[in-house]
Amino acid sequence: MTSTSTSTSTSTSTATSASTPPAVRPPLPPFTEESARAKVQAAEDAWNSRDPERVALAYTEDSVWRNRDRFLTGRAEIRAFLAEKWERELDYRLRKELWAYTGNRISVRFEYEWHDASGQWWRSHGNEQWEFADDGLMRRREASINDVPIEEVDRRLR
After folding, report:
1. Could you read off the pLDDT of 136-150 as tens digits, one per residue?
2. Over the chain, what HEC string results?
3. Given CA atoms 9, 14, 20, 26 in this order, what sign does their dihedral have?
């Protein structure tokens, strides 16, 4: 495992280090436009995997979240939240866009589509504010999200 690409190490992280995250998670703050865009793309890719373990490894052990009206603390709560989310939000597909960045903070706008168990499609959109530790793990996430019912034919993310 001496020459592993980023995509290979990311895809094998669940199998090889489920409870041991990497010591650092580049790109690291302070962010440039290029590194902030890379951080946003990495988050989009991870969330689209719908793998709670993979996504949770991007957060500090004591990460603090506000997600809509829910407040979470720690990687274990985040992991459980994500597992519950993707049991309910079926065929989830997400797009994130860099909105702003400075120092160790990034702001994104996002949109995702999913359907519930009854077959009703939804478009969820909102904003997130992220704050990172020096090791590149996210220590704080604030998310404001709104849901709009849509028809399947009106989906934009496939």
Report:
1. 999 999 999 999 999
2. CCCCCHHHHHHHHHHHCCCCCCCCCCCCCCCCHHHHHHHHHHHHHHHHCCCHHHHHCCEEEEEEEEECCEEEECHHHHHHHHHHHHHHCEEEEEEEEEEEEECCEEEEEEEEEEECCCCCEEEEEEEEEEEECCCCCEEEEEEEEEEEEECHHHCCCC
3. positive
125 and 145 Cβ atoms separated by less than 8 Å:
yes
In this predicted model, what pLDDT tens digit does every residue of 93-139 receive, in sequence order?
999 999 999 999 999 999 999 999 999 999 999 999 999 999 999 99
CA angle 88, 74, 32 (to 5 degrees): 95
Task: Specify the pTM.
Answer: 0.85
Joined together, the tokens standing for residue 34 give 């290029």
Count of all residues that appear for the chain in the document? 158
For residues 27 and 71, what is the distance between their CA atoms, to the nearest angstrom? 26
pLDDT band at 18 (very low <50, low <70, confident <90, very high): low
> Which range is least confidently modeled, 10-19, 27-36, 149-158?
10-19
